[in-house]
Amino acid sequence: MKRFLPVLLAALLLAGCNNDNKVIMKGAFTVPAEGMVYLDQSEVDRSTRVDSTEIKRGRFKFVTEVTGPEFYQLRFPGNEFVALLVMPGENISLELGKTPVAMNYTVQGSPGSADIRLLDQQLLVTKTRLDSVRNIYNALSIDDLAVRGPELQKTYTEAVEAQRKFNIKFVVEHISSMSSIQALYQRLDENTYVLYQPRDLQYLKIVSDSLSVRYPVSRHVRALKENVTSELNQMYIDRISDLAMQLPETKSSPELPDINDKMVGVSSLKGKYVLVSFWSTTSEASMNQLPLLRSIYNDYHRKGLEIYQVSLDTDPERWKSVVRFEEIPWISVREPDPANPIYARLMNITSLPSNLLYDPQGNIVNTNLTGRNLLIRMDQLFNQ
Q: By CB count within 10 A, which of 71, 96, 159, 166 is most buried?
């Protein structure tokens, strides 16, 4: 008997671990209901069906396992649905009423799902109000439009802004909850996020930073972090591109401060080929280019190449920290005002990273040098 005891204990331990991750979702309708209920696992941009069951005597039940916070949708007949945010070990009970179900249900046993209910119901109220204003506006005659149009437009704008403020308040109050992700990505329609203003990007970053500490392995948090990085980079690119469109191409020679606030100019490097590289530590593509630049520097620095890397980071301390951590051996400088980057504008930089090559006389001889093209150009200059 003793020889089987370790096996039995191991089995019991495994069963206990599974129970810790088990989630029960059960619902009961207070009105007659029949048909199928579908359980979908939700991502920011898609949903995947994971289970289904039949409504029997007004009730249904799902049992699943999760290892961390997960978003789900319960879909009912008539294109009705309820969103949930579940945690391992939760026993969730829903009471569902008349159509629309999303406005007439309660949830117990899941604080995250209760938060999602609050968010979704407020958004439905706003959408209903916007639809009403839109319908009235579209039904007006040309004469009535001139009289009532401005008032209706104001009502519409106020409703949109009220929803935006509601979501911002929710995010601030639930900064360490996964439910804040739902608040960040809610939409008024297919093309319009509730948090639609450029400055709202700060809330994505705040939530990303907070949740990355609490749920570092969550794929939802990793996706949010990647999205924040992408959005920040795109905001930079758009801003630089807009400014660059207003200026002609020029052969300006940058002179900027390094990490010790010493001014270093490209003009002081005449007699060498100088690769001027615009980058940002928040740009994944820029960070991915560092090994390539390091290889090029090691191969060609002694042959007459210098790298002059220009940072467009908004946080100077982050830039300095990365330069020191990466032990970057070449010249690293920064635009003092990345929101209005003088040399990036003058040199028509519209994406990060971007590389330009100066010849020993101080003239720009190549632009848009990246990847394989950059390697080929270096080989042409120094190996042939």
A: 96
Report pLDDT for 10: 42
Residue 303: which CATH number?
3.40.30.10
Query: Is residue 343 in some structural domain?
Result: yes
Spans of the chain below 70 pLDDT: 1-18, 44-45, 231-252, 384
Between strands 22-29 and 255-257, the pairing is unpaired
Q: Tens digit of pLDDT for each residue in 23-45?
A: 999 999 999 999 999 999 988 66
The stretches of the chain forming alpha helices (DSSP H) are 5-21, 111-139, 142-173, 179-185, 201-214, 219-244, 284-300, 316-325, 342-346, 371-382
Return the closest-CA partner of residue 290 out of 311, 271, 261, 272: 311
Distance CA(36)–CA(27), nearest Å, equals 13
Helix or strand or coil: residue 353?
coil
Residues 130, 157 contacting (CB under 8 angstroms):
no
Is the torsion defined by CA of 110, 123, 232, 288 positive or negative?
A: positive
What is the residue range of 282's domain? 255-382
pLDDT of residue 18: 55
Tokens, residue 154: 């104001």
Cβ contact 83:15 at 8 Å: no
Count of alpha carbons within 13 Å of 45, Cβ hemisphere only?
Answer: 4
Is 299 inside a domain boundary?
Answer: yes
Q: Is 313 helix (H, G, I), strand (E, B) or coil?
A: coil
- Tell me the β-bridge partners of 26: 61, 93
Whole-angstrom Cα distance, residue 71 to residue 43?
A: 7
Compute the distance between CA of residue 256 and CA of residue 278 in angstroms, rounded to an integer: 12
Q: Which residues, at least 6 apart from 206, have a Cβ–Cβ distance to it below 8 Å? A: 171, 175
Q: Render the burial of 369-382: b for 16+ CB within 10 Å, e for the rest.
A: beeeebeebbeebe
Phi, psi (degrees; rounded to nearest 5) at 355:
-125, 135
Contact 122, 55 (CB under 8 A): no
Q: In this structure, what are the phi and psi dihedrals at residue 128, rounded to the nearest 5 degrees?
A: -60, -40
CB 368 within 8 A of CB 277: no
User: Final residue of a domain: which of 87, 109, 131?
Assistant: 109
How open is the CA angle 93-94-99, to the nearest 5 degrees? Answer: 175
